Amino acid sequence: MTANPTRLGAIREIEANEAPAAFFNGTGDSPEIFGENVFSLPVMAKRLPKSVYKSVAATIEKGEKLDPAIADVVAAAMKDWAMEKGATHYAHVFYPLTGLTAEKHDSFMEPVGDGTAIWEFQGKILVQGEPDASSFPNGGIRATFEARGYTGWDVQSPAYILENDNGSTLCIPTIFVSMTGEALDYKTPLLRSQNAMSDQAKRVLALFGHKDIDNVVSYCGPEQEYFLVDTSFVNSRPDLLNAGRTLFGAKPPKGQEFDDHYFGAIPERVQNFMFDTERALFKLGVPAKTRHNEVAPGQFEIAPVFEKANLAADHQQLIMSTFKAIAKKHGFEALFHEKPFAGVNGSGKHVNFSFGNGNQGNFLNPGDNPHDNAQFLVFCAAVIRAVHLHGGLLRVAIASAGNDHRLGANEAPPAIISIFLGDQLQDVFEQIAKGGATSSKQKGALSVGVDSLPVLTQDAGDRNRTSPMAFTGNRFEFRAVGSDQTVAAPLIVINTIMAEALDYLATEIEALVAAGTEFNAAVQQILAKVIEQHGAAVFNGNGYSTEWHEEAVARGLKKLDTTVDALPEYQTPEAKALFSKYGVFNEAELEARYEVALEQYLMAVNVEANLTEEIAKTIILPSAVRYQTELAGNIAALKAAGVEGDLSDLNEVSELVAALRAGLKSLQAAVAGQHDHEGIAEAQYVKDVVLPAMLKVREAADGLEGVVADDLWNLPTYQEMLFIR
């Protein structure tokens, strides 16, 4: 075992770790706990007058306009329910452009002037709040001296009780807008985009003869990957504490090359953590379904089942905050950075999405014979058109400094946005392009050669792990989203570009039918046109191959490798026209997204550059110099004794120390030169100059980790952080 005091102390703390006893009392494991802390429709049905309940239910289930007259009744019932569960405070919860959750807590207590107080919660307080908006990112929408912002109750995302060791809080999901009405959050444009998509989807459904058409929504089932690292290690790593990823770390003797961690037995301590998080999430109505070990050592995944996209986005934020809080109680830190460790898989948040409603079901369900399912083919064709025309917007929606390290590495898809359809759908659309589809490849039977085992069903098509947008049976999986990102950002883009594609398809079909073309013939004609014009986005091969990257560029697909390359997509005339047409962003709001994304990229890299210099100068260099001195002292002692010493170790360390000092000098010059640039030019400079300078420092430091005496190396190593539980 290592003799370094810092690392040895951390390991001993891990060995002494015990699960928090209060979490394992055996209660609360029955199905009844699901949603018990949610002010859900069943709860409302019991507590609200019938007329009020029907009004709220119509807003939640059908998207009808909220009747403000019911607010006082709902607020009173909500307050009584919350106080019965121990809540003393309420909070409007909103989702600013930080990508994190924000909340402002107030007490139900109202003084009455005679030294006593009453507990009340009025409808006007439920409907609207007023947090300070000046200190949140706004991209220039508001000057910093103008502070007023509003939160507004989103009745479609239910209120819930957030339990704490010392009390509970009633949490009310809300939108967040400026005093002048611009969106300062992710929820507002997500709801707008959903409305736009719904309007156009209804037009398509009407063309297919549907009469009773419910409000259409997008559905989302996001898979969340994450790392668990012991708190004792994280507290000894300034880079993990401040940047969420390791800026230094030599490759360990063993990584993920054996594939022995993937779907392996979950360590007991990690299972204890998972049980506690799932109980907490179940109480909050979060449908956490699947858990397993991921590919990289120390990496895991949780996957909830599908929900309406607005609710799924809120629940995703709850998952991350719940994981963070409960991980600490188990002596872990939950890491959501897209690439916390170099050389092993990073973490994504695969966004499985589909569209549908209560009456017509899932529009992306192909059925057994997709070639006969014209409605499905129209919606699938809309996805193809949307991705081909607006791949740049999908790319910028998931652009961040963290995701730049992940995309195209190991399991993550490349930054070229393409679609994988699979053999079955690929064949159907190829038939359509040639004049009409008459058959669909069918599922098969798979015998594994063991008499005692049943025959397995073989799907009509395989899956593709390298595709950013892969069809997986009854949905598309957007695999490029980063682990630390809100799913609302890509969902906003998906909804909006689907609105445009469905608008186009509906308009084209309507025009052909009006001109006398039979409906089915019109559909086939438009499907063939979509494949001809937008089939370049469909690719079923290996997304990692050099040949594909070259072919993609030849096809006219955008190759936006980094955030800096992607950010200008927010500023194109096409993007401005698209978001404006469908009422998702006005020009000022879209410009604000660009400015905020640019600012967050620069801040993230600046923090990392400062940390690189600090850690290298104050931790790594002193350790290396001490070892260099030890070796020099040994050589001097041998020489004094008349023995010829071997200088190779000293020379190697000295060369690496010199390289580290030179790297630091270059990094300092690079950071100083950043101030000579502004806007996107500054981001380009950071990408081209600052990040490579940081890597030079790391290269020398990681080389030193491999030669400096273990007892002198203070930073917990990859080997320790990834494997010790």
Task: Give an overview in words.
The protein is an alpha+beta fold. Helix content is 46%, strand content 14%. The chain contains 22 helices and 21 strands. The strands form five sheets. Strands 9, 13, 15, 16, 17, 20 and 21 form a seven-stranded mixed β-sheet that branches. A hairpin with a 4-residue loop joins β20 (469-471) and β21. The protein is globular, with a radius of gyration of 28 Å. The two termini are 15 Å apart. The relative contact order is 0.11. Mean pLDDT is 92; it is low at 23-27. Residues 88-181 form the GS beta-grasp domain. It holds the Pfam family Gln-synt_C-ter. This is Glutamine synthetase. Belongs to the glutamine synthetase family. InterPro entries: Gln-synt_C, Gln_synt_N, Gln_synth/guanido_kin_cat_dom, Gln_synth_cat_dom, Gln_synth_gly_rich_site, GS_Type-3, GSIII_N.
Radius of gyration: 28 Å
- Mean pLDDT across all amino acids: 92
Q: Report the principal-axis shape.
A: globular
Structural class: alpha+beta
Helix content: 40-55%
SS summary, helix count: 22
Beta content: 5-15%
From the N-terminal CA to the C-terminal CA, the straight-line distance is 15 Å
Quaternary structure classification? single chain
Counting DSSP E segments of at least 2 residues, the number of strands comes to 21
Query: Which sheet architecture does the biggest sheet show?
Result: 7 strands, mixed
Unreliable spans = 23-27
